Amino acid sequence: NVGKMQEVISKALANAKAFLSKEDRLIDSTVDRDLGNADVLLAQVATQINRREFLAAQRTLDEANKLVRTAASSANEQARRLNVLLKDVVAVKDIAVRQVATARREQNALPAASRTSEAESFVRDAENALQEAQRAEVNLGRLEDRALTEGLDRTLNAYRQAKKSVDRALAQITEDKRRYDRIYNEVQECVS
Questions:
Q1: pLDDT 10s per residue in the chain (192 long)?
Q2: What is the 3-state secondary structure of 125-169?
Q3: 136, 139, 129: which is closest to 168 by C-alpha?
Q4: Which of 59, 70, 111, 115 has the fewest CB atoms within 10 Å around its CB?
Q5: DSSP assignment, residue 52?
């Protein structure tokens, strides 16, 4: 029974190590440490079995099993969280990039008489926020583990800020366009 459990835990440990080596950049060092400790415990189990210390071997196996399960669960959760964050960054980035370009294009397309400094300021704020987000994203390539998670959070928040800024810009541009069209139509009616 102890031998079979040792085999199962060894297999789980090997699977966890394989996952860790594949996703190492995403997973923090506590997982490495726990898997290393589980390795040491499994070596102790072999010694305990050779000495016919089956109860001690069972306790050591239980401890190794707990470490492997905790490490595997933590590794999976860390990788899942980072993948969700990455998808969120990509989604918000795509929207922010498109909308900032649209805001600039619409602002430039307005007749000079209808452009307001407020709208121009909002567009510049959105462009600056987008550039800040893109700089934060570039820095992600150097990060690992928890720093990568924090970097993704910062990048996501920066893209969200760019989106908020561009939403204000687009609303102001729309208002400026409406005001201009209204005044233009009033003038046209007076002239006719």
A1: 777 777 877 788 788 878 777 777 678 888 888 988 998 998 898 888 889 888 998 899 899 989 999 988 988 888 888 889 999 999 999 999 999 999 999 999 999 888 999 999 999 999 999 999 999 999 888 887 788 889 999 999 999 999 999 999 999 999 999 999 999 899 988 987
A2: HHHHHHHHHHHHHHHHHHCCHHHHHHHHHHHHHHHHHHHHHHHHH
A3: 129
A4: 111
A5: T
